[in-house]
Design a protein that fits this description.
Protein-Tyrosine Phosphatase, Chain A, FAD/NAD(P)-binding domain, alpha/beta, Prot-tyrosine_phosphatase-like, 560 residues, 23% strand, 27% helix
Length: 560
């Protein structure tokens, strides 16, 4: 329990988990002040879960959420008011503690000497010098000077960011690279489907971030507040300025749990689960094992989403287990998809439909989850008919697997780098920003019309690395590297068989293997072995290490 004392009445720390709250109470804390908005991280408990655990421990919890790096004077005033009202002592938390400390520092302006504010924050391990700069500059962070400078700055330590750093380091020596990410843990998210299917243990899908940062690459453990591409600057949480020559933006996307009314208050209880969160995927398997009949609903929100096949992967693995145990005949399974098709590449629909028929799944297209009541085991969907008319329909459930709506992270959506939909704008072939040539992007956050999968990031990383190094004159290649939109979705249609869907821009099938080895139009045991046994080591030991089998980028054609 790593709390940092700022005053006798207030301590701060990183993310609090519900199971840590009894220890906080035993340490004497009487209230929890939550400054981290729900949905920032894939493994983050919601405020409803924190509040429930706090009440059980005899503590009070208050929700004063603040977006990363967007601490306003009004936010500081709300923080001060909450701190005044709550029983003392209080522990406040966000992702790392920096936001909570910033709120406190701003709330103390005029009440304490600035050196005292800075000294207390520094003693707790937080640098608040940027707050002083902000106050002195009328609320803005000046970018004419910077605390840090690196030639190449990568925002995001997920699949795309680490792969890009490793790919760069493998191609040129002596590069000055920094990765910006506040997370201590890196997750292999494709494995969560198999956690929810009882194949993997959750701990098999995580590694310490420190173990994955490529040698020679600096890790800046901070969250990004804003981009100022005209000044080649990134503003970090705490108002620190980081300058770059080249920027790679790869922070992933945001799971918007709050986008479904009532969802946050009921996740992990009452039969409501999701494989899109590390700590909930095991609950999916618990529900599958305990359900002996009734109604099981599986949802899919509007596109784009991370791994568009994942919603039905969860469904097929669940149905297989119920079929194996002989309870599928007692279970009504319904797939409620906000879109209009089962899968976006038409050639893969017929083999998937064979499993839909085998498991007796009802398909309901044009159904978007809007509200859920866990205790009442009821969900409400907005149904859009072929003529565009809309209606709200009510569905009862014994189990529901929910996929939340998904957007670009807030600090991306409001930035100059974003397109109208909020994603980082890129040329879909070179992955370079069309308006800011020093900026590249890859992974789930960028705007190219490809599937948002780890397999896509594996192909994108060498494209970004080659083009960026070509810009810097570090490699001798006259032609630009080109990304063709490759993505892959190993559809787990049953335990032991996978339909390996591979495709590029325009829904074009691009199978990687000869038909005699893996026929991409037929579920196979070989493809299952690839999914279960081969792809995880490829991810950890190849993709994140700068080794790129079957990922060599193509190049633009030169004119005759």
């Amino acid at each position: 329990m790593d709390t940092k004392k700022l005053t006798e009445q207030l301590s701060v720390r990183d993310q609090v988990r519900p199971d840590e709250i009894p220890a906080l109470r035993a340490a004497g804390f009487r209230a929890i002040l939550v400054n981290r908005p729900d949905g920032e991280g894939g493994d983050q408990p919601t405020f409803a879960e924190i509040e429930r655990a706090a009440k059980a421990a005899g503590m009070e919890a208050r929700y004063v959420p603040v977006e990363t790096g967007r601490v306003s004077d009004a936010d500081a005033a709300k923080f001060a008011a909450a701190l005044d009202e709550l029983p003392k002592p209080v522990v406040a938390f966000c992702r790392s503690g920096t936001r909570s400390t910033t709120l406190w520092a701003l709330s103390q302006a005029g009440l304490r000497p600035v050196p005292d504010i800075l000294a207390r924050a520094k003693a707790a391990g937080y640098d608040m010098s940027g707050v002083v700069r902000r106050i002195a500059n009328g609320g803005r962070v000046p970018t004419d000077t910077a605390e840090m400078r690196h030639d190449i700055v990568i925002v995001g330590g997920g699949a795309g960011g680490i792969a890009a750093a490793a790919s760069l380091a493998a191609r040129a020596d002596g590069l000055d690279i920094a990765i910006v990410d506040p997370a201590d843990i890196h997750y292999y998210q494709p494995g969560w489907t198999l956690v929810g299917g009882g194949v993997f243990k959750p701990e098999e899908t995580r590694r310490d971030m420190a173990s994955l940062i490529p040698e020679g690459v600096k890790w800046i453990r901070a969250a990004v507040a804003a981009f100022e591409p005209d000044a080649n600057a990134v503003i970090l949480e705490g108002c620190r300025v980081l300058k770059y020559k080249k920027l790679i933006v790869a922070p992933g996307l945001k799971l918007d749990w709050a986008g479904v009314e009532g969802l946050e208050a009921t996740l992990g209880r009452y039969g409501v689960t999701s494989n899109y969160r590390y700590d909930l995927a095991p609950y999916t398997w618990e529900l599958v094992q305990s359900l002996s009949g009734g109604t099981a609903l599986f949802t899919q929100p509007p596109m784009p989403i991370k791994c568009a096949g994942a919603p039905q992967k969860a469904m097929y693995l669940s149905c297989y287990e119920w079929e194996r145990r002989g309870t599928l005949k007692n279970t009504r399974v319904e797939f409620l998809n906000a879109g209009g098709v089962l899968f976006g590449v038409k050639e893969y629909v017929p083999p998937l439909m064979e499993y839909v028929a085998r498991y007796g799944i009802d398909l309901s297209f044009g159904h978007n989850l809007k509200k859920i009541d866990g205790p009442a085991k009821t969900a409400w969907f907005e149904r859009t008919d072929a003529d565009g008319s809309k209606a709200i329909v009510e569905k009862r459930f014994d189990m529901i697997h929910v996929v939340p709506p998904q957007t670009a992270p807030d600090f991306v959506r409001v930035s100059p780098l974003a397109n109208e939909a909020g994603w980082v704008e890129v040329d879909q072939a070179t992955l370079r920003h069309p308006r800011y040539p020093d900026v590249y992007s890859l992974g789930d956050v960028m705007s190219a019309p490809n599937a948002k999968t780890a397999a896509a990031a594996r192909k994108q990383a060498p494209v970004v690395a080659e083009n960026l190094l070509r810009d810097l004159g570090r490699i001798d290649e006259p032609r630009q590297a080109i990304y063709d939109g490759y993505g892959s979705c190993p559809l787990t249609v049953e335990r032991g068989k996978v339909l390996l869907a591979e495709f590029a821009y325009g829904g074009r099938r691009v199978p990687s293997f000869p038909k005699w080895f893996i026929d991409d139009l037929k579920p196979s045991k070989t493809a299952w072995i690839l999914k279960e046994k081969i792809l995880p080591p490829v991810y950890w030991q190849a993709m994140l290490k700068g080794r790129e089998p079957m990922a060599k980028p193509a190049h633009e054609k030169t004119s005759a």
